[in-house]
Write a structure and sequence with these properties.
The protein is α/β, with parallel strands linked by helices and about 200 residues long. It contains ten helices and five strands. The protein has helices at about 15-25, 35-45, 60-70, 90-95, 110-125, 135, 140-150, 155-165, 165-180, 185-195; strands at about 5-10, 30, 50-55, 80-85, 100-105.
Length: about 200
């Protein structure tokens, strides 16, 4: 069985070395030091199963690269996990809203990274059959999972326990869902998810 392919994009050479060491036992890892280098590899058809993307890079930042990926029919299918030293919640919400599958702050533990990657790879092929295609097409994998559990009546804390995410992370995903679906309250969000069922 072929190892899943992961592309790590970061201008920090030391961070790339650490990621390669952390992941080498389970994944085929390619490292890119800039958005331009990554785009060149992707345009040649070297498509990974998942991308680890630094937010702060000198030429094209991670958010800009993410928006580029989301505008491509093939590249938008690849889950992207943002890795960043930024601690601003607004940046995290932005990353999730523009399509990031997950957002991990540096420094991070190897075990946490491996679990988050495994979760994204496992869910990549799972597409919600409960939420309408119109809504599901706008959401990341984690957002789809949270939206489906919200639709079923689970609370934020219960969703966090089921998906092994912190309650604060679930709250940020719910905030992202409200933005994407143009609703203000959680009750309105649930109603919208159920109406499209």
């Amino acid at each position: 069985m072929n190892e899943p392919k992961i592309m790590a994009i970061d201008d920090d050479i030391e961070m790339l070395k650490q990621l390669a060491i952390m992941l080498k036992d389970q994944y085929a890892v390619s490292v890119m030091t800039s958005a331009e280098q990554a785009l060149a590899a992707l345009s040649e058809g070297n498509l990974p199963d998942l991308i680890l993307l630094d937010v702060m890079m000198p030429d094209t930042d991670g958010f800009s690269l993410m928006e580029h990926l989301k505008n491509d029919k093939e590249l938008r299918k690849i889950p992207v996990i943002f890795l960043t030293g930024m601690t601003n919640t607004d940046d995290e919400i932005r990353g999730l809203t523009i399509g990031g599958a997950d957002y991990i702050r540096k420094p991070f533990h190897r075990e946490v990274l491996l679990v988050r990657i495994a979760l994204q790879l496992a869910s990549r092929t799972l597409r919600s059959e409960e939420i309408s295609d119109e809504i599901a097409s706008q959401l990341t994998d984690n957002e789809r999972k949270v939206a489906e559990l919200l639709r079923q009546g689970y609370s934020g804390k219960e969703i966090g326990e089921k998906l092994f995410f912190s309650y604060s992370y679930i709250k940020r995903i719910i905030a992202s869902l409200k933005l994407k679906l143009d609703v203000e309250g959680t009750t309105e969000l649930i109603r919208k998810l159920r109406e499209n069922h």
